[in-house]
Amino acid sequence: MSRIPSKAEILDWISANPTLTSKRDIAKAFGIKGSDRIDLKRALKELEAEGHLEKRKKSYGDPDRLPPVSVLLVKAPDADGDLFAQPLEWHGEGVEPIVLVLPRASDPALGEGDRILARLTVVQGGDHNYEARLIRRIGSNPKRVLGIFRKRSEGGRIVPIDKSASNEWIVADDATHGARDGELVEAEQAGPKGRMGLPRARVVDRLGDPSAPKAVSLIAIHQHGIPDAFPDAVVAEADAAKPMPLKGREDLRDMPLVTIDPSDARDHDDACYAHADDDPKNPGGHVVWVAIADVAAYVRPGTALDREARKRGNSSYFPDRVVPMLPDRLSGDLCSLHEGVPRPCIAVRMQLDAEGNKIAHKFVRGLMRSVASLHYGEVQEAMDGAPNDRTRPLLQDVIKPLYAAYAALKAARAARQPLELNLPERKIILGQNGAVKSVNFRERLDAHRLIEEFMILANVAAAETLIAKRAPQLFRVHEEPSPEKLDALRETAAAAGLTLAKGQVLQTRHLNALLNAAAGTDEAELINISTLRSMTQAYYGIENFGHFGLALRNYAHFTSPIRRYADLIVHRALVTSHGWGKDGLDPAEVDRLEQTATHISDTERRSMMAERDTTDRYLAAFLSERVGNEFTGRINGIARFGVFVKLDETGADGLIPVRSLGREFFHFDADAGTLMGSDTGLIIAIGQQVTVRLTEATPVTGGLQLELLTLDDKPLPRSRRTSPAGRSGGKRKASKIKRKTDKIKRKVVRKKR
Q: Which SUPFAM superfamilies does the protein's record reference (predicted)?
């Protein structure tokens, strides 16, 4: 009988032989055969359960791993010319992993001693553990330019698309990257900044036709003035940052916190864990932990990093790229809660009763280590009975308790009744060439709702704590609709045969009753859109006016400090009010808090406009090959110059010009939101179903022009007029039409009563 090695001997073997870590390799090394393999398997499972090992497919390894974005020190090329690098942030106790650098043709030459920021991919088998792709050299931050390439006899010039740029850029013959005349290119500064003459650049990406889909987001970024290049001082500060030690923090590394994000997420700023409350005074209760990346520890008030983060206000998200608020050294690495890597956090422990009401909470500043970076789909599949290799070990002790706590929160939400709009969110899927591959509507899973409810709860806890401590802070404010907008919503509801109560203080439950009454009817989308339009826009403020949409009295943004400056302010306020350190709010920051609130509310709107414009351009490019096709849709806007239609298939918005509606004059009633034909009496209103033909799609502007074919499944009536639209009749006809419209409106109101 073979001797089963001790756990210490197994760990020593794996540390000394990182490429021979399968159960078969271990058994062979210790001469274990036959039925003794069962005992070996048991020992390995115990080590895995204790956190000493992590199973990766059929092999075992140290659970500590390198983060997806890491700082590396480049070594000298080996005999085969391969370039390897040393990870500078290895936390494991075993053998340091081997990283192979894979340069791209457009990458600058790397040499021994270069420190680089790289994106890592785990490799199974072979003579190395990771493959690295260069993001940039540490300490180098070349200026970037977006412009049109103009070919010259030798090399070329780049004409920036930014109107504020005063100079063209010279491109040497060997730095064109094959760019053609008239192409949109992205380039970076080549060589030191000269005092005389035009700056020199090297083309790093060819984006092709300036109207092509791949160029869309870059153009929007520049048009809306979103800063997309970090100053040298900002990058230098980020590069100098180091991993945070445990000192002064609560050790949360043994808590099985998990991150749950979209499958393509690059950064993870929130993690959660839940379990049944063992307090006998709270039967059926739950304890929920939410841990958030401690960005305040790295971004201190008054630093270059802080000034740039405040300037940007937030990250901006596009279908093909992200313009981050913080440099990738922080957003993708040190401030991201990657799996298996120690990361600083600010965490809140929240105690819920059996009905999902928060009865207590406490904040701590800690050091955590995520046990898994999961995505929504796989978490939902695990709960639906189809766990994979990643979720199966976590199902009973981590995932199911999260859903149990969520079930309680759902009950509390139902009692609170926040606004429940049903407006599906579009998701643009891009192909490898940057063109739109498909347009889908995002699936809403319980896994999404679970994280949303946990984050809302943590945001409430942050606001309540700072109020109790009388600390200055930024609230997330959403005021109730104005009386004028509510009157317009009531008219729309009445025209659809529905009622919105009047003469009482409006609450979200009243709007939910209206939405529920419309659900399943032809007017459902109209009522949802009209309700959304009646809402005021949320903003940041130093005065607490509550959050109407969420039906909450106290609300602040705490859960996304990597991508929102408001959350960073709240983190600093928590640091100061708890006396956790000197990296909290400073007096100068408190004095300008109101200006900061206004500024970041503006940057949020700027990003929303850029993201919307980008989506419109992508959709126009996607539909440009389908000009002449027919689509169904619904009218979602009326103006004097035409009718706006949202297409069912893609959610794209198009315009039916009023001149194309026929040869009759159309009277516009702004109060009723209608167009009415002078000859046919045809009334066109928001919410009607239409069939349209796409007549024009312009990717450069994102415009879609449509032709109306049917209205509420009926063909359009023919006008008896022979003269061009809008000629005879003039003011007398317009006045007659208005009287007729008012008469029809009065009839509709009486009928509905």
A: Nucleic acid-binding proteins (SSF50249)
**From edge to edge, which strands make up the β-sheet containing 250-252?**
250-252, 358-369, 342-352, 286-293, 270-276, 258-261, 372-375
What CA–CA distance (Å, rounded) separates 474 from 596?
Answer: 9
The predicted pLDDT at position 748 comes to 43
Q: What is the CA radius of gyration of the chain?
A: 30
DSSP 450-508: HHHHHHHHHHHHHHHHHHHTT----EEEBPPPPHHHHHHHHHHHHHTT-----SS---H
Question: What does 395-453 look like in DSSP terms, one character per residue?
Answer: IIIIIHHHHHHHHHHHHHHHHH-------PPEEEEE-TTSSEEEEEE----HHHHHHHH
Nearest Cα to Cα of residue 403 among 453, 461, 353: 453
The dihedral sign for the CA sequence 701, 706, 712, 717 = positive
In the block, which residue shows the tokens 């167009």?
A: 675
CA distance 600 to 306: 13
The DSSP secondary structure of 709-748, one letter per residue, reads EEETTEEPPPP---SPTTSTTHHHHHHHHHHHHHHHHHHH
Q: The whole model's pTM is what?
A: 0.77
Task: Check: CB of residue 285 under 8 Å from CB of residue 279.
Answer: yes
Distance between terminal CA atoms of the chain?
A: 91
Long-range CB contacts (within 8 A, 24+) of 56-60: 56/124, 57/124, 57/389, 58/22, 58/23, 59/21, 59/22, 59/25, 59/124, 60/14, 60/21, 60/22, 60/23, 60/26
Q: How far does CA 199 lie from the centroid of its chain?
A: 35
Confidence (pLDDT) at 38:
76
Q: How far is CA 283 from the centre of its chain?
A: 37
**pLDDT for residue 53:** 66
Spans in the chain with pLDDT lower than 50: 1, 19, 56-63, 722-734, 737, 744-745, 747-753
Backbone torsions φ then ψ of 31, nearest 5 degrees: 65, 35
Phi and psi at 105, nearest 5°, equal -60, -30
Query: Could you write out the DSSP letters of every residue in 18-76?
Result: TT--BHHHHHHHTT--TTHHHHHHHHHHHHHHTTS-EEETTEEE-S----SEEEEEEPP
Round to whole Å and give the CA distance between 129 and 49.
23
- Can you tell me whether residue 534 is helix, strand or coil? helix
CA distances (Å), origin 503, targets 416, 486, 496, 530, 559: 21, 11, 20, 20, 38
Residue whose pair of structure tokens reads 């990093």 in the numeric block = 305
Q: What is the pLDDT of residue 376?
A: 96
Specify whether the CB–CB gap between 318 and 584 falls below 8 A.
no
Facing residues of 373 across strands?
A: 259
Cα–Cα separations (whole angstroms), residue 557 to 124, 367, 478: 40, 21, 12
pLDDT at site 128:
85
* Spatial separation of the C-alpha atoms in residues 8 and 12, rounded to whole Å: 6
φ, ψ dihedrals at 578, nearest 5°: -95, -5
Q: Which two tokens stand for residue 641?
A: 């110059």
Of the candidates 313, 290, 150, 147, the one whose C-alpha atom is nearest the C-alpha of residue 227 is 313
Report yes or no: 296 and 309 within 8 Å, Cβ to Cβ: no
> Which helix H or strand E contains 115, and what residues bound it?
strand 115-122
647-693 pLDDT, tens digit per residue, is 999 989 999 999 888 888 999 988 777 899 988 889 998 888 899 99
Instruction: Tell me how far apart the alpha carbons of residues 363 and 642 are, in angstroms, rounded to a whole number.
Output: 54
For the record, the structure tokens of 551 come out as 């039906």
Residues 395-431 as b or e (16 or more Cβ within 10 Å = b): eeebbebbbebbebbeebbeeeebbbeeeeeeebebe
In the prediction, which pLDDT does 225 show?
83
Kindly state the helix (H) or strand (E) to which residue 376 belongs, with its residue range.
helix 376-383
Q: 3-class secondary structure for 229-272?
A: CCCHHHHHHHHCCCCCCCCCCEEECCCCCEEEECCCCCCCCEEE
Residue 595 sits at the vertex; the CA angle it makes with 297 and 547, to the nearest 5 degrees, is: 80
What are the E-state strand segments in 123-211?
130-137, 144-151, 156-160, 169-171, 184-189, 200-208
